[in-house]
């Protein structure tokens, strides 16, 4: 069962483009060489385009998205600070856990898994916070565990409407680069991502963008930190170097990845992710199954969490995919373990790969006892893809007409 | 349309396993070094297992399968020699053409495209050839253009029944390593293959195995030759070197490929190819289409040539696959251009990849106007794969029962 | 000037073996797959052999050696804890800086750059510390900035002689895997290394080994931490998984690297590093120059810091090497900037590479005005290497005689 | 002895640039795809610049330089044709051997090994050939076995002076791309090279350029040929395809290699090869040894064949280099076996690599009993390289002054 391509449909690490893979296959190089900044400085510049920020500053930490979460908190807040968070999946749960462990006083709103950031509740808490005790508001843009995308612009609106000046932290690990994210327009202060999702790299980099307001808050922050400290990193990265040995291999991969992203175009990438995701969703609905994201407005274009019927164990579906069909699906985590399996559809992906995912899922489901019709999900997705691709191929004047 | 994996379903070059790809990614090395034979000699030994020969000798020429065809002819025959050939597809056609251009007198039997080597006709010609004018009999084991596998054992039987001592040449380019081939048992004298099919390497090596009888004939051969000469190659390769600079990269890839082949097991590989091919065929039949191979006995386990309905242009199917769905199918060549498209299913392949091929073909066909049902081929193949894989996973004692 | 190999003689990242490079050139994989522990668990087991510990526990953090420093401190100590450190180069300096920033009360002994850990002073401070206020003693095993190796066994002896039960922290970033290091024998509690030195990988992993006593101390540690917390990592890694997405690519590289290390043999690797280093030192002395390490007992087998004569600017030597001869040397850092340049000689290296380093350094020195004789350093090293290699090639019985 | 870089100083295959290596590390692709010509057609166009021909046609055969030799002969001559050749090393010897085996009547002038094409003798034979019986004149531009470069323009002059219209064949396997070669200016009709020398690729492609006169001769050629036939190749390559499966991997590598070549500039590459070669020669002369090329006019800028003193066995030098110092030198072939070892200095090479070659050769020589001074060759080369690089770095106005 080890023949041929392994079919990777987890929501990260994502499939890496071959050009990126090649770019990382290099001998080691001198990270103190005078021309090293020629590699590094444009990375910072170009990552700003990914975050859609002109005024923010970008930080690249060797680590992971979790490390970038920690960098964001420990550089801008202080122990005992009150923060507003919401929890509706494993990753928003872990972020709350980190905030507590780092000494924040978390005002956490628990929301049903399958929904996202509760805008009304946020607005109310912010409105009630007359003394501005809440120092920061946290939003998980895309909850990877449930396939739920939240409305970050809505969080900004809640802040604005209540004239609250808390910092806005956004976890964009599984959205940035794949789903539209607008740091400046939405007034995000700390935006966090990692290398192994929309940036189509291996894990190993935690990346964050910090607004001018975030950097201002940094000056008041007294948390102990060293590895993840902004000050060391800023001093170095301004000159194109790093305070400690950087993973040069990943920086070269990032260069290749950014080149691919800009060649395709960010908006085109978002459109592609939507098209691919919608095909998967149509497949799921053709099976008669439901998404964990319980309203269309929450549907994520990077990952679909699929609820199996009661008589099926989602763990078995995943096990079948892996052991019988060389396919990796994402598991249902924590509360939804056994009830949900996930299809990641972000990064370097195309229509036929999504059809392969659906075909493999159909077999894995049926092997696990699911009463779904063979080929039904594939057929529904095919029709969507054919129509969409046909539409884009239509001569321009016809479309105009 | 350049995102994600390119789906390669041509009958060679085939998808290369990642381990093979990695093995070829090397700095250059000294092909005259004293330890170079430690790489080379085991390759010759192990290739004999691929050809299933103990008494034959293996030759590796930098070139292609076409080069190995020429090496076989120019080293064992003489200009003006009469040979018996048959023609039922583009590749058997090209082999006849080469034989004529190299100065052989070809007794060519034309057979309908969709059938294979005509055993009865061969038996008759051989029986009629009282003066043993026929010096060699040629058989294309697997006609890549039409997806037809011929009965090489049957050709041997025809020779034996007529007590004819002509040499037996077999083109196994798209069979050896994927479909059972038994050089010694079938009394094949010149067996030809290339690197880019069942051996799962890039193109660049023409490989042939020669029986003791073939080497004996070589002594009588007076054709001019130099690059492809057996004598130079034999003298060198016996010592583990080459008469001219070999493509070391491919030799290292071959090492990795042979290791994978023996780890899986040749018989298991043949079974896998049959299982994968049968899934594709069930898909084709579920569409209501026919194979070019017009009887089950001719069905090839490495490539399926699919006949489209009269109102569809197969060229359009292939063009759709390539431009819309990032999928490469094989074209209908020469006589069957426009009527046939081909799905190659050999090499490093698994079930979900074949389902992807079918899903992509369904869309490409429907876009080209074919009246086939979306998802129908995928569903038929899924059911076959599920049953087959389920069968292999069944506990051993149950199966025994 | 971009032709041919870049000659990398910095003390890390080191030259990567091709087998390691190939092992990292992979598609992404599912880090939650049931067989993922088959990769991970043996890594932990085998790293223990590198640290020479049977009772310790190994942690692998995505990050760098600096991150592992932080993990060691923040998991076993508490803010306000008194620790004994010494400072004699840029890296011991940075470690002191980190300790202070993380809230420790550092009792720092400054030593002349060119010497190592001051055993007598340590013994005295420990002896004086009747109330056991010193919670930990820190030793930089190999100070990369000055090419000084310290006597860790001596630090242990100082602790034992004074019957002090402080934890022993050792920075082995540029020693472990290249210079003998014996965690259990020396009673080291926190041993730190990174991927990009003796492990011959790109930067990206901070690795540490923790003694049972260190884990005991962990239970009393109340520093805030999350990313680098032992508890999360231990819970996961016991099962062969990670608490957040690991850099799988580097784990695969580590597998390949460990395989190479054990194939060569740790003791053989130490001997090779000594042989190579001694050749470089003989070259330096043939030039009439001195090492920064001011006594033979401090000489490092992984990096030589070379003091240029007063009329030469070491920065110019390094600039010449880089811009004229495609060679990277290490810079003199901080106090010794301009006075010192460094030749890193650790990792995947051989004699002729060291001769290339010396040849390039000779040109770079002479271009910078140094009055050294062309070829003199190369000649001295050649004679040493010839003799050493000749000795190892001598028939065993001759050597015995 | 397997640590670190293997030092490859054979005259091909040469060290491959990392960018080329990366470019070849690819999944397989569809060599019948409609956009495949976008890769292929520019290769033909750009190779013409390498040959310095505007009117010639380029052919790329999967094979080797030897294959291209055969293609050149079998496509433009006829059995029994008289040709003028000269023999002064192993490769010119092998070419004569091929010509004879392919049925040509060879008028061969034997020249002392260490000299090159005998212009006077050529002029005389051509002048004497009143009936124009000589159909072709052959010249080995660079005899790889002896490190001798011949004067191709001189051969053209001999033809012109005698008003002889024989075709001019040139073996440029180890010169083209590294030493100036001017196909059109010198009136070369058949120019032959391979991939593994100046083109810095693995072996696997035989490349030749054919003048209009050569193509005219082709029409009269009646030699049997198929694999290497111009007609099939021309028909295909005009459209950007190949008559049989091409080694796509190498074509992608060729693209990368040509890009590097044009980025550096052909004339700059020739100058670099001269500079590097001259350093090696100065090293050899500093040792008190002589080149096989017995006059300066014959000295090759791509390979130096070095004559050892009588009491030394050159085979031992090579064995020492390989087994003790991880270095590959070229052997003395045939007549000069044991008397000569070779340092290849072509392709992707820089000064410090050449110094490494000399340093390794010094040790290998001394280990073999040669009475040369350690470091002497390195020192001589260093001084040359320093001066040459210094010269190129000198401000433009100083140089002008």
From TrEMBL, chains A, B, C, D:
Cofactor: pyridoxal 5'-phosphate
Record key words, sorted: Aminotransferase, Pyridoxal phosphate, Transferase
Domain Aminotransferase class V intervals: 49-286
Enzyme Commission designation: 2.6.1.45
Pfam families: Aminotran_5 (PF00266)
Residues annotated to bind substrate: 342
Signal sequence extent: none
UniProt keyword Isomerase, yes or no: no
N6-(pyridoxal phosphate)lysine carried by residues: 197
GO molecular function terms attached to this record: alanine-glyoxylate transaminase activity; L-serine-glyoxylate transaminase activity; L-serine-pyruvate transaminase activity
Gene3D superfamilies: Aspartate Aminotransferase, domain 1 (3.90.1150.10), Type I PLP-dependent aspartate aminotransferase-like (Major domain) (3.40.640.10)
Domain of life: Bacteria
Catalytic activity annotation: glyoxylate + L-serine = 3-hydroxypyruvate + glycine
BP GO terms, sorted: glycine biosynthetic process, by transamination of glyoxylate
UniProt-listed SUPFAM superfamilies: PLP-dependent transferases
Pathway recorded for this protein: One-carbon metabolism; formaldehyde assimilation via serine pathway
Family statement drawn from the similarity comment of this UniProt entry: Belongs to the class-V pyridoxal-phosphate-dependent aminotransferase family.
Protein known as: Serine--glyoxylate aminotransferase
Organism of derivation: Mesorhizobium ciceri
């Amino acid at each position: 069962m080890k023949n041929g391509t392994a079919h990777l449909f987890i929501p990260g690490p994502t499939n890496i483009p071959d050009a990126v893979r090649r770019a990382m296959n290099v001998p080691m190089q001198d990270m103190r060489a005078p021309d090293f900044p020629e590699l590094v400085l444009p990375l910072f510049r170009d990552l700003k385009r990914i975050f859609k920020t002109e005024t923010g500053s970008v930080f690249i930490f060797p680590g992971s998205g979790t490390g970038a979460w920690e960098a964001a908190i420990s550089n801008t807040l202080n122990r005992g600070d009150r923060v507003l968070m919401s929890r509706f999946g494993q990753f928003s749960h872990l972020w709350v856990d980190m905030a507590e462990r780092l000494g924040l006083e978390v005002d956490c709103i628990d929301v049903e898994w399958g929904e996202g950031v509760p805008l009304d509740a946020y607005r109310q808490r912010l409105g009630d916070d007359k003394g501005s005790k809440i120092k920061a508001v946290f939003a998980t843009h895309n909850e990877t565990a449930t396939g739920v995308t939240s409305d970050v612009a809505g969080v900004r609106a809640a802040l604005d409407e209540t004239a609250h000046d808390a910092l806005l932290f956004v976890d964009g690990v599984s959205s940035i680069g794949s789903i539209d994210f607008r740091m400046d327009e939405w007034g995000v202060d700390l935006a966090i991502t990692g290398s192994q999702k929309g940036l189509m790299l291996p894990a190993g980099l935690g990346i964050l963008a910090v607004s001018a307001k975030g950097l201002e808050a940094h000056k008041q922050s007294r948390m102990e930190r060293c590895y993840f400290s902004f000050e060391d990193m800023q001093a170095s990265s301004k000159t194109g170097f790093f305070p400690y040995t950087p993973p040069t291999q990943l920086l070269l991969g990032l260069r290749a990845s950014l080149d691919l992203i800009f060649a395709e175009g960010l908006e085109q990438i978002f459109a592609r992710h939507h098209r691919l995701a919608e095909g998967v969703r149509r497949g799921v609905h053709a099976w008669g199954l439901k998404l964990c994201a319980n309203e269309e407005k929450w549907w994520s274009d990077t990952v679909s969490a699929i609820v199996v019927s009661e008589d099926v164990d989602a763990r078995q579906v995943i096990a079948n995919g892996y052991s019988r069909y060389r396919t990796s699906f994402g598991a249902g985590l924590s509360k939804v373990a056994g009830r949900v399996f996930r299809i990641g559809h972000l990064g370097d992906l195309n229509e036929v790969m999504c059809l392969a995912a659906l075909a493999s899922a159909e077999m894995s489901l049926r092997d696990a006892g699911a009463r779904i019709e063979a080929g039904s999900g594939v057929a529904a997705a095919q029709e969507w893809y054919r129509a969409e691709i046909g539409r884009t191929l239509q001569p321009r004047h016809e479309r105009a007409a």
